[in-house]
Structure formats: structure tokens, C-alpha cells
Amino acid sequence: MKLPLLSLLVFLPLFGAGLLWLLPARAARWLTAASMLATLALGVAALVAYQPAGARFQLLEQASWIASLNVHYRLGVDGLSILFLPATALLFLGSLVACWNVVQTSARLHYSLLLLLQTAMLGIFCALDTVLFFVFWELTLVPLYFLLGRWGVSSSSPQAAARYFLLMLAGGIPLLLAFVLLAASQPVPTFDLTVLLDAQLPRSTQTAVFLLCLLGFGIKVPLVPMHTWLPQFALAAPGSLTALLLGLKLGAFGLIRFAVPLAPAAAQDMHWLLAGLGTVAILYGAVGMLAQTNLRVGLAYASICHVGLAVLGLASFTAQGTQGAVSLLLSFSVATGGAFLLLEFLRQRTGSTDIHALGGAAKTMPLLATGFLICGLAGVGMPGTSSFPGEFLLIIAALHSHTGAGMAALFGLSIAAGGFLALYRKAFFGPVTRPEVSQAQDLRPREWAVLVALIVMIVAIGIYPGPWIEIVRPAAEAWAAGLGR
Amino acid sequence: MNGTLGSLSEVFWYEQAGLPLLLLLQLLPLFGAAVVFAFKERSTAVLAGKLFALAELLLAIVVVSRLQPTSAALQLAERFAPLAYHVGVDGVSLIFVLVAALLTFLMTLYGMSRGMISPGRLFAVLLLAEAGLVGMLVTLNVAWFAAFSALELWAVVYLLRRWASSHAETQALARFVQYQAFGWGLFAAGCVVLGWGHAEAHAGRWSFDLFDLIGAVPVGKFQTAAFYLLFYGLAVRTPLFPLHGWLPNMAQHGLIAVAPALMVGVKVGIYGMFRFVLPLTPVAVEYWQPYVVGFAGAGVFFTAALAFQQTNLRRLLAFAVVSHTSLLVIGVFSLHEAGIQGAMLLAANFGLAATGMWFIVGFVFRRTGTTELHELSGLFERIPFLAIAFLGFGLAIVGMPGTPGFDAAHLILEAAIDQFGALLTVATALGNVAAAGFLLWAFQRAFLSQAKSGAYDVDRTLPMEYVVCGIALAAMLAIGFFTEPWLHLTESASQAAAARFVR
Questions:
Q1: How many Cβ atoms from other residues are within 10 Å of residue B11's Cβ?
Q2: ipTM over 0.85
Q3: Do A482 and A373 touch, CB atoms closer than 8 A?
Q4: Tens of pLDDT along A408-437?
């Protein structure tokens, strides 16, 4: 009997959450850290066990769950999802460090919710059954609601939490309908992703499934015009939470994993829709960023912009575009995640991330400023950072398939880079005017440790991207080949 | 089951069990009520009441274990001709029996504050109400169903009368009695029409037995009359929009958790539609299906909108119940096996979840003396477990994955797509999101908002409260993640019910 590696990985955080309540409250923080470290180790083990040249889906596990509906417990990973597992584990560890001294009340509850969220997110990347996926997908909402509503950083946090929860719940309806439609289209209703990926579906069903998925995942991505929750969320949530939500681009992953390959012909018919939404998101995010004075909201707009690029590249329906999209999303989990964690460190020190309340922050906090610059540059796709290979592949793919949109994307990305640098200059350079800034301390060792880990990854992947790209490539080729069925 | 439309089959108890289990199931709470009543004011009465409720729950579990779920026949059947006594169960009725037994047990733990009634007396009445509920769920005779319904209503009215002290409370009681008497009268009249139809067809021999009636369903306008009388009688009891007027007042002014739990915790109205209305008036059901579904669809939204207007947590929950009950009716009247099965599971889920929420409202009321939303604040800090449980029950009502509501809502959606097309389905699903909206809104105001200065000092969660909410929550999650046995239990009964209607 082989070790059920993925199940262990997915449910270890949940187990940790249960354990928290059996041990004294003082141990909660360290126990959470231990659980997250162990999860990271398992994530790396899964990555080592995965063979890029092997079968499409690996580390498969299957068990009967709801037999009369033909719903199974099915886990497995391919080259598109495997790298997200260690990335998720790493980001959660960073998030824990960012809220290390912040959570004073009901700490056990906070940490168990964080661990529950980790289980749900890992489950999303591993599920190979649409119902199981949906369960994990919706399961993220409960901990997010509480973490934002109860431990938010602004007075409007409960409202933002409720809004996010309701929007995502509404977004779940089209997804569930799409999965039910897909299941019903088969001779024997099935929710097995591996079967559905090979199924021949009538064009009308494909169109319905694709549009429903686009709606459901689009809210999460978020695609313009369904993005309005994001700036509000970024303002109301502590950076440790935003890092998780924006670092791990679940919506874009959903598009890659479900929307396009399950309805390939419809997706290719509506390439203009996907490419258009991507281009609008790039331009809108870039321009929106210029108007911001708060670094957290500015980064939220930058995130809309970048994920738009991934969607545009996806609309080329080539292996190259998909490979680029996955690489870019992975890079963001490190870069955007890291940037939000740093903003959380900054907020804890100065009480704000608004450029008017900062100014000259690089003088008193040089390490923080340097780290933020590196993460930010990685976010705008600077050569030598981890985002560059992905971005390069995406732009090539986009210029081939949608030349005009590709040009517009290049233009948008330059605006975004300029916008980031302008925000950065106002917040970190210039004279120090605020006492909060002049008295602020630079990063503590444990914060520094997280940052170094992230920066090493950003630079190492940026300089030597080969091995990572090679893990994604065979899966991306299989993905693109599957579209021609 | 020989497969022809309109036929029923049964398996007698001696073929499946050594004892007439259903008789025991009905007599145990009656006997318990008598014993507890005899103990009067002694403290043993409380203990005995809890033990009888627990024993009934265990007995219900034994009955479930004896059932053969793959058979569509009514099982463990018992007949005693002189009294027209005829009982039998299938998977669907047992789901409801389990819910009734579990809720009664939780209610005995919950108890009752405001010393209007001695605990012994309260438990005796609770057990009587349970006997009424179980009787309704196992009987196969419409007249017996009406009689048990009267017994249960009497128990609730008795409790409400003991509780009522202020003018508003007396008025709520009067409204309750008027509505329920009217609804019961309609149902009884429907029974008479059915019995009369049988007498016409069988040379003047009256019968109210399901097995007899199904062979002699009234024709033409008599069937329409029977359908409307039975349906509206049950609709008042359920309660279904627009006949829900008694519930908000009773929820606001009646005794907090016990009365609503007895009235809407076990959805006997929905069960009655499944057991009697669908098979006995099939032509009328099919003819009036669009109207019923249309009204129910409007009801989902209308009452959800009303729920948003409420300033009192108890009234808000009452409207939430009316809103989701409409969803159940859509499921039953989809006349589709998946829809019926989904509605039955969802009814159990709603009953459990809504009662859990009502318990928590009761716990809050014991601490604060109010359920006005603008007077509640910051409860999360003081009673986090109850707050999370409240949200958990709310999520179950919304059909969150991991609760029984998910698979059930999933089934109803599947049936609705099949029967009514995508538009109504999407609308129904959006109604569910509206429900999530007002539950979250209430949750935020009462539990998450900043505690007001000078607010009451709220006691921490008590062990009894952990037990009551913990059991209910654990039951929900267990059923939610391991739905398979429950789907299995209800599958063939739902198929049999849907097989009467051409698709």
C-alpha cells in the first residue's frame, strides 16, 4: 500500500487545527507553525515524487464517497498544479509569521481558521472530482469570512467580509450548475475530471458550461467588471490574509483547470471573449493603479492587471501560453504574496500603508524597503525575477494569437510598472515627515527569514528558470493537445 | 411493487422484526408522558423526561436498522382493522422520525426558562407532542394523521398559553389558534372528501386508509377540491407563503425555542404532501403544479425581502423558515425523483438547522433579555462557540458544501433544470443566496459588531449549551460529509413517489 501523500498533505492542517484545541492556548502559535512546516515538507515531498515525464495525473488516490450520485473522493496532481502545493505551504507560513504578534484575542480560533483555509486551498489544487473541488472551493469562504470579519483591520471589515462571502456564494451557483450540466451530459452521470476531460460534448452544452465557468471563476479571478470587491477587500483585510487570497490565484487556476479544457470547442469559439476580458483587465488594472494612494489597494489593482495577462495568454490555447500562465501565477504567489506580507509588516509599524502617511520609509526601514522593491519588481515582470519567464512566454503567445491585444498588454504592463515605481517613490523615498515612520524599526529576524526565503526563490527562479518551466511544460502540452479533441 | 401506477405494497412487521416496533415507537413517548406527569414536581421527572426522549431516539435508530432501504414497499407495517389502525414506514418517513426524536431529545436538554410551568409538566407535554409527531409520520390513514396533528397542536397551544402573559403574547396565541384551527379544518374537510369518494365507489363503505383510497381516487372536480383542501390545510401548517401569518408573531412572542421547533422543526406539512397529497390527487397535482411552483418561487423572494426588513432576530428567523419552506415545495412539486428526494433531505436539514438557530436565540435571550437586533452587539467575544454554531446552522440552510443542505439542494437543482428549465433554477438558487444575505446580516449585527459601551455582561457558554449545539452541529456535519447512507435510505421511496407521474 502506497502512502496517500496528497491526502496527508491536504488534511494535515485540518488535523493540526483539531490538535490546537487539545493543547494549551499558549502552544497554539508554535503548534500552527509546526503544522505548517510539516505541510511544507509534505508539499516538497509531493514535488519530488512527481515525475514530469510520467503520466498526466499522478499521485492518484480514489475512494468511494457518495456512491448513488457517483461522486468520488479523487485526488491527483499534474504539472499545472504540483508546484502550487509547496507555494501554498510556503505562503501560509509567511502569513503566519506576519500575524505572529498581532492576534491577541481568541488566538486558537484564529489559527485553526487559518489551518482550515490551508486545507481548503490545498484541496482545490488536488481535487480531481468536480464535486470534491466544489466542496473545497466553498470551504474557503467560511474561514475567510471569519478571518476578515473578526480580525479585519478597518471598521468596515465585517461589511467587506459579508460582501465577499455573498459574492463568492453567488459565484458558486454558476459553477455548480456547470458541473451538474457536465455530469448530466454523460451516459452515466459522472463528476470524474479525468473522464470529463476526454468526453465529447455537444456544442450547446459546451457553450453553457464555458460561460457558466467563466462567470463563476471570473468573480474570483477577478475579471473586470466583477472585480469591485477586491479593492475593498484589500483595504479591510490584514496583509497576511490578502497575501493568501491574491498570492494564490484560485480563479485563474480554475479557468486553466476547468473552464477551458472541459469545454474546449466553445472556449476556442469564444477566444475573443477570453482575450478581451484579459486585455480589459490589464489596461483597467494598470490605469486604476495610477489613481491609488494606498499601497495595498495599488497592489490589488496590479494584481488585476497581471492576472489579466495570464487570461490573455490562456486565450492563445497553446502550450506556450498555458505554460506561461501557470509560471506567472506561481511567481505571483511568491512575489505578490511577499509584497502583501511586507505591507503588513509596514502597517504594523506605521499604522498605515497610505503614501500620505509614509514618505521616506526607506531611511528607517532599509531592509523592508529593499524587499518590497524586489517583490514589486518581480510583480511587474522585471527580467531576472521569477515572473519574467512566464511573462515572456505569455506575451509571445499573445502576440501570435491576438496581436493587437498583445500590443495593448505590453502597453498596459509598462503603465503598471511606472505606476508601481511612482507609488514606491512616494512611500519610501523623500524626507521623513511622520513620527510613526521615523520611530519605526526595521524587520525583525523572523520576518527577515521569511523575506529571504521568498527573495531567494524570486531571484533563483528568475536566473535559472529551466527546471521549473520543465515541470510545467509536458502538462501544458498535454493540456493544449486535449483541446483538439 | 408490481410496477403499475398507483399501487402500493407493504411488508408486515413480523417478517422483519421480533416486535411491532412502530407501535412501540408511538407508545413510548405516550407512556413517558404519563410517567413524567405522575412524578409531578419531583426532580426525577426531569431525569425521566430526558431518558424517555433518549430512549425514543435509540428506538428510532433501531427501526432504521430494520428497514430494507432498497425496497419501495412500506415496511414494518401493522394493521388493526377495528380501529382502522394502519402504520408503515419507508426511508422518507424514517428520516423525519429521526429528526423528530433528535429534536425532542435536544429540547429536553434545552429545557425552558421563565418558570411559567414546572419542568415535569413541560416534559410531559413535550413527550405528548413527540407522540403526535411520530404518529403523524408512521400512520397510513389520513384520519389518524389528522387526529395526531390535533394532539400535537394541542400540546403547542398548551405551552403557548402557559407562556403568554402580556397582551402581545396573548394576541400571538389567538392568531396561532385561529390559523391552525382553520388549517386543520381544511385538512379534515379534505379527508372527508376522500372518504366520501371511497364510499361512492365501494357501495357506501367509508375508508380513510391510504391503501384503500389510492384505488378509488376522486375524479374531476372532486379531486381538485380534495387537492386544494389537503394542500392548503398542510400549507398553513408548513407554513407556506402566503399562509404563514401565524409564524412570525408566534416566533416573536411565543416561548422561544420549543414552540417553533415543535411547529417547524419537523416539517410534517411537507411530509403530508409527499405521503398523501401526491398519491391521492395525482391528476390535480399535475394540473396545478405550475401554479404551486410559481407561488412558491415568489414566496422564496417575497419572504426573503421581508426577512431583510426585520429588526427582531426571532421574527427574522421565522421569515427565513417561510422562505426556505417554499424551496421544499418546489422540490416536492417538481414531481421528479431527484427533486422529491432532495426536498425530503432538505426538510430534515432545515428542521435541524432552524431548530439549532432557535436554540441559540433562546440562549442569547436568557442572557440579554432581548432579541432586538439593535440591542444586541459583540456577542462573539463572549460566546464564540454559540456564534460559530449559529453561523454553521445558517450555512446549512444556505446549502453550503459539508452540510446535508448541499447534496439536497444539488438534487433539487438537478430536478428543477430538468422540469422547469434553467431560468427558474437560477432564480431559486439566487433565492438561496438571498437567504445567506439576511442570515449573515443578522449574524453580523448580533455577534460580530463592536460591543456597545455599557452593554450587559454576557455569561460564558454553559456546558448544557455546548452539548445541545454540539450534538446538533455534529449531526449536521456528519450527515453532510457522509450523505451516502441517507441518500440510499430515501432513494427508492422517492422513486416510487415520482413514478406516479409521467415525465
A1: 16
A2: no
A3: no
A4: 999 998 899 899 998 898 888 888 888 878
